Every structure is written in C-alpha cells, then in structure tokens.
Amino acid sequence: MSRKHWAADWAKRIGKPSAPIKVIRLPGFKSLEDRSLWEMGTPDFDNDVNTLSLRTFGITVEDTYFPAPMGWRDFAIERQWEVEQKIGDHEARFPAYYAGEDQIIEQFKKLGFDFTDDHGKPLRILELFCRQAEAAARGIAGRRPEVAALDAEIWGNDLEEQARQWKDARRR
CB atoms < 10 A from the CB of 41, how many? Predict the structure, then answer.
C-alpha cells in the first residue's frame, strides 16, 4: 500500500478531528454578548447568564467550585489546611481558567470550545462561561452542549443573521 493510500485509510479510520464548538453561534450567546456592553453585572443579566449556563452546560458557575464544609474557617488549623488543600487540588483541575489572556483562547480551542467572535476577538462573556465549559470538557461537572441537537437552531440563527445583514446592505 502506498504512503498516500495508507494516510487516507488511516484518516478514514480515526476520523477528522472535530472543529471546536463556536460558542457565539450557540443559542442565546450572541444576544448575551451584545447585551454585555451595557447590562453586565445587573441582576437580570446575571439571571440570564445562569439560565443560559444551565441550558447549555447543565451547571452554573457556582457548581464548579469546591463544596467546602460550612464554617470551615473556624475549624482547627490542621483541618483548615486539609480543606485548603482540597480546594487547591480542585482548582488545579481548571488550568484553562487560570491561563493568561494570551493563552486562554487556545486552551479552550484544545478543549473543543471557540470563545471568539466572527472577527477572532475573545468574547466579553468568556469569563462568565469558561469555568462551566472547562468543567464540561474535562468531565468534572455538567455536560458538553449537544451540537447535533442544536444544529437546526444554529442554522436558523445563522440564516436569520444573514437575512438581516442582506437587508441592512440593501438599505444603504
């Protein structure tokens, strides 16, 4: 078997690596990104973030933190150290979350999530969803979004956006 045919056969067997999920195209993320300019930090916005997080990943950001025992800071010092160690071990499972600004986008692409807009710039809402995305990607908590189930909705959103752009261009 020639080298070319062997490579093609191998590619068929293992399949092509799937492209990262473009988060901005998932239902609800584009509108939240647009609203983030003027509403970030308001109670309604925070409620919408939690709702979208639950719908997409099955968890909120609070679900990604270590469930430390109530009043653990009042424990004996040895017991406090044990809890702090467990918290540290838990947080070590989120390396992409703690990556620097220049590395965070690439870290998430490796995990299967593209947190950039259509121009390649990081989303403003990245910090609001990155722990949930990383927890889902690493199997810590939650679930990865079912893109196959969302394809029709994503396709409809893309078509709606293209129609809006066409109408805007026609008006000029």
Answer: 7
Look-up: residue for tokens 């702090």? 84
Q: Write down the residue that tokens 């989120």 correspond to.
A: 94
CA atoms within 13 A on the CB side of 160: 9
The per-residue pLDDT for 89 is: 93
- The span from the CA of 46 to the CA of 125, in Å, is 11
Rounded to an integer, the average pLDDT of 75-83 is: 89
- Contact present, 118 and 32 (Cβ < 8 Å): no
The CA–CA distances, whole Å, from 40 to 19, 25, 32, 34 equal 29, 20, 9, 10
Rounded to the nearest 5°, which phi and psi values hold at 141? -160, 160
Question: Do the beta carbons of residue 26 and residue 145 sit within 8 Å?
Answer: yes
- Residue whose entry in the numeric block shows the structure tokens 């396709």: 155
In whole angstroms, what is the distance from residue 126 CA to residue 114 CA? 10
31-63: pLDDT as tens digits: 999 999 999 999 999 999 999 999 999 999 999
List strand residue ranges (DSSP E) for the chain, in order.
Answer: 21-22, 113-114
